[in-house]
């Protein structure tokens, strides 16, 4: 979404690193809809991955419908999730959809996955409070709520990424 623009390059590098370091990683982006980007990230260079993303992903920096995107994820991918799966969501929680839809989709993910990690770059600000409707709906279903705004915050995630 537009509110995540400032962090998108850092977070894409993080996801690119995960995608190319672990054997079983699936990567998706969402704005108003969900798009699988695993293939775009499987490139020898980060620059080439960015070029493929720019060509293949629509709706960059638009609005965000997290709940609808997670519903689509659950329909298409939930059967592949098990207790060895770590789900990572990178978002500031600004959602234009219905909070009940987000809560229901996250509830299903939490039941199936070993851990649901929500990375929110706004957590770097000590004054931040997760008061948006999206974050309020999501919090009960999150195993780890952590910042993702710089390299140090991403390094601190290591212990949460492996079950």
Textual characterization of the structure:
- The protein is 41% helix and 12% strand.
- The chain is of the alpha/beta class and 163 residues long.
- α5 links the parallel β3 and β4 (115-119).
- α4 runs parallel beside α5.
- The longest helix is centred in the first third of the chain and has 15 residues, at 5-19.
- The chain is globular and about 40 Å long.
Task: Please name the defining characteristics of this protein.
163 residues, alpha/beta, 3-stranded parallel β-sheet
Helices, strands, pairings?
Elements: H1 5-19, E1 28-30, E2 34-36, H2 38-41, H3 46-56, H4 66-77, E3 86-90, H5 99-112, E4 115-119, H6 133-138, E5 144-146, H7 151-155
Parallel strand pairs: 3-4, 4-5
Antiparallel strand pairs: 1-2
> What is the total tally of β strands?
5
What is the terminal separation in angstroms?
Answer: 30 Å
The number of distinct helices, counting runs of at least 4 residues, comes to 7
Helix-strand makeup class: alpha/beta
What's the rounded overall pLDDT mean? 88
Element order: H for helix, E for strand: HEEHHHEHEHEH
Please state roughly what percent of the residues sit in beta strands, choosing from under 5%, 5-15%, 15-25%, 25-35%, 35-45% or over 45%.
5-15%
Q: Strand order across the biggest sheet?
A: 3-4-5
Q: Uncertain runs with pLDDT below 50, 5 residues or more?
A: none
Residues in helices, as a percent range: 40-55%
Main sheet makeup:
3 strands, parallel
Shape: globular
Oligomeric form: single chain
Integer-rounded radius of gyration: 15 Å
């Amino acid at each position: 979404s537009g509110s995540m623009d400032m962090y998108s390059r850092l977070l894409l590098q993080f996801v690119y690193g995960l995608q190319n370091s672990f054997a079983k990683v699936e990567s998706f982006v969402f704005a108003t809809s969900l798009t699988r980007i695993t293939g775009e990230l499987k490139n020898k260079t980060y620059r080439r991955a960015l070029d493929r993303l720019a060509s293949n992903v629509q709706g960059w920096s638009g609005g965000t419908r997290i709940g609808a995107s997670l519903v689509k994820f659950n329909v298409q991918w939930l059967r592949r999730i098990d207790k060895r799966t770590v789900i990572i969501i990178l978002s500031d929680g600004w959602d234009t959809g219905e909070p009940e839809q987000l809560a229901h989709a996250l509830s299903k993910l939490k039941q199936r996955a070993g851990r649901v990690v929500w990375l929110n770059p706004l957590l770097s600000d000590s004054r931040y409070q997760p008061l948006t409707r999206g974050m309020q709906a999501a919090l009960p279903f999150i195993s780890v709520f952590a910042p993702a705004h710089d390299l140090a915050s991403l390094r601190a995630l290591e212990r949460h990424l492996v079950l």
